[in-house]
Design brief:
The complex is a heterodimer of chains A (151) and B (430).
Chain A lengths: L2 E7 L9 H12 L4 E6 L3 H7 L3 E10 L8 E5 L19 H10 L6 E8 L11 H20 L1
Parallel strand pairs in A: 1-2, 1-3, 3-5
Antiparallel strand pairs in A: 4-5
Helix pairs in contact in A: 1-4, 2-3
Chain B lengths: L3 E5 L9 E8 L2 E9 L6 H5 L7 H6 L6 H16 L5 H32 L4 H7 L1 H22 L8 E2 L2 E2 L5 H5 L2 H19 L13 E4 L10 E4 L4 E2 L4 H4 E4 L8 E4 L10 H8 L5 H9 L12 H21 L16 E9 L2 E9 L5 E7 L1 H16 L8 H13 L5 H4 L5 E4 L2
Parallel strand pairs in B: 2-14
Antiparallel strand pairs in B: 1-2, 1-14, 2-3, 4-5, 6-7, 7-8, 9-10, 11-12, 12-13
């Protein structure tokens, strides 16, 4: 059976960095039963393992691109790499963009591989999600769910 | 060519934020400065007033790559302060957990951060496009480290199962047995990794280091032992501050360290452990080292990639030995009564010796905490390496020279975030 996985990426203890994890949690209740919903903190090799053997992988992550807080953007990473400077926020410099390119280099990128990016407002330690990021998480979950149902 | 400044604004493929500035005058390296601008994190102040039992979980947060090292130094220092000793299967489980961290950390550094330097790639992803099998093999070995961490630590990063006195839960024998097949395959693969890195091209340079590491009879050091040096030092961890001093330099938010009596920097990490403990490696690891061209001492910092690979092979071998002899303990932790006291301990993080010292009040709350991470201890030696080694590369084109400087820093697998308590390269040729 084809493996389908949604991976929420981020650190919920760093304010809006947890927006992707929040969206994944929202999907847990609503998504088709065959879809695995998992959370990861963003370390590249853990993300590589998370998409291992999947036919479809949807990553939901927070980003800081300068767009309006809460804005959700969709990247078809099976077609083109992520913009590295917006997704490189890992202390080893090995984050989601690296994981996707490593999977591509090793021939393990899922046939369908999508990233939903939720624009964060504040990444303060210990802070809750901002209202904008919460709204962004709900929107990203809605878009991901529609994509899962259509695929 | 005679005068110039080499600058690396922000070092790539190191953990945390730092830069480098090298000044060349009349064709000679005059100074090499490692600038660590990662903001200080104040963990020692954060620990004050917290209960002794909170230290392993708080200090684990210092590092996402080597949380076990922080936990292990913390629990051993607390146990020294509280007059408790953890032995038998509980001590073995701690050693096994440490094997997991070395496997994870070393394989990540060897394959994603360091090997690209030797093969001429900008990074691990670029290397993976041409050497997919090598990267796949490295990541498959790393996975076993993760599996050990998850089983014993409760999760892959920032383990939650370590406590002062032991663990919150100890694994069943049958749970550990599930790791054996994977570990045996990873051990065979690690032997291949040692052969691969042994065949890389290395600059020909030997340095006269003062090596410092732990040493304990009959075991390659992870969690215990006396602090020894290649110059004859042999002390208990409680004597660390009497023989080593930390001091501030303006260019770094991480304290530098030197040996008090020699007034000189020293080296901690794989090269030091290997030189001071070669005989304690397993026969398999010693044989693989010899086959890769290493003697019992390796003083070429670029060959640290071989030593890390040998240490990974050892950690896999040791993990299998520990699992084979494991007997489920009756209790998962030793009972502890809080009391006033002072305790110190050092353990061997993947990148070098990590020392903790705590002073506790009568209710077991932390009155004082002093943490001396490996990368902060190595800063002086990194700068010395740059001063003595970069001179021979000055004829290289600017880009290659800058790369060689960064590689010289990456020899140390520096963990800058941990050390702040660190890279840009600025080379000034006048």
């Amino acid at each position: 059976m084809n493996r389908r996985v949604v991976i929420g990426v981020g650190n919920p203890l760093r304010g809006d960095d947890g927006a992707g994890r929040r969206a994944a949690a929202l999907l847990r209740a609503a998504s088709p039963p065959d879809v695995e919903i998992i959370g990861r903190d963003g370390e590249a090799t853990a993300l590589l393992e998370a998409m291992d053997g999947a036919e479809l992988a949807i990553f939901i992550d927070a980003c800081a691109s300068g767009a309006a807080p809460g804005a959700v953007r969709r990247f078809d990473v099976a077609r083109a790499p992520l913009p590295q400077n917006e997704f490189g926020a890992s202390s080893h410099g090995l984050g989601l963009a690296t994981a996707i390119e490593l999977a591509r280099a090793l021939g393990g990128l899922p046939r369908v591989c999508v990233v939903y990016a939720i624009e964060g407002e504040s990444f303060t330690q210990g802070a809750p999600l901002s209202r904008a990021a919460e709204a962004g998480a709900i929107e990203a979950a809605r878009l991901a769910l529609a994509e899962l149902r259509a695929s | 060519m005679g005068n110039r400044t080499i600058k690396v604004g922000a070092l790539a493929r190191v953990e945390g934020e730092g830069g480098l500035e090298i000044v060349v005058r009349d064709g000679e390296v005059k100074s090499a400065a490692l600038n660590i601008f990662e903001p200080p994190r104040f963990f020692e102040a954060l620990l004050r007033g917290r209960g002794f039992a909170e230290a392993p979980d708080i200090t684990a947060r210092i590092c996402g790559i080597c949380p076990v090292a922080y936990q292990m130094s913390a629990v051993h220092a607390m146990e020294a302060a509280l007059g408790v000793e953890v032995t038998g299967p509980l001590a073995d489980l701690r050693r096994l957990l440490y094997c997991g961290e070395w496997i994870e950390s070393h394989m990540l550094h060897v394959h994603m951060l360091h090997a690209p330097d030797f093969l001429g790639y900008a990074g691990g992803v670029e290397m993976a496009r041409d050497h997919g099998d090598i990267v796949r093999r490295g990541l498959a070995i790393k996975k076993l480290g993760n599996a050990i961490m998850t089983l014993i630590g409760g999760r892959e990063i920032h383990p939650i199962n370590v406590r002062v006195g032991g663990f919150y839960r100890t694994p069943r024998k049958r749970e550990l047995a599930t790791l054996v097949d994977g570990l045996e395959r990873a051990r065979d693969a690690a032997r291949e990794v040692v052969r691969f890195v042994g065949g890389l091209d290395f600059p020909d340079c030997e340095r006269d280091y003062i090596f410092v590491s732990l040493r304990h009879p009959g075991e390659y050091p992870f969690t215990r032992g006396r602090i020894v040096s290649s110059r004859g030092l042999d002390i208990d961890a409680s004597q660390f501050q009497a023989h080593f001093e930390e001091f501030h330099v303006q260019r770094s938010t991480a304290l530098h360290a030197r040996m008090r009596h020699e007034g000189a920097p020293y080296l901690v990490g794989p090269l030091a452990r290997y030189a001071l403990n070669f005989e304690s490696l397993s026969p398999l690891a010693r044989e693989a080292a010899r086959e890769a061209g290493l003697g019992p001492v390796c003083a070429n910092p670029y060959k640290s990639i071989i030593v890390r690979s040998v240490e990974t092979l050892y950690a896999l071998d040791e993990a299998l030995r520990l699992i084979a002899r494991y007997e489920e303990p009756e209790h998962c932790a030793v009972a502890i009564e809080p009391r006033a006291g002072e305790g110190a301990a050092a353990t061997e993080a993947p990148r070098g010796m990590l020392h903790h010292r705590y002073r506790l009040d009568a209710d077991g709350s932390i009155a004082e905490a002093v943490i001396t991470p490996p990368t902060s201890q190595n800063q002086g030696m990194i700068e010395d390496d740059l001063k003595s080694l970069v001179g021979r590369f000055l004829d290289l084109p600017e880009e290659e020279l800058r790369h060689r400087c960064e590689q010289t820093v990456r020899n140390y697998d520096p963990c800058i975030s941990c050390s702040t308590h660190f890279l840009r390269l600025d080379l000034d040729r006048g």
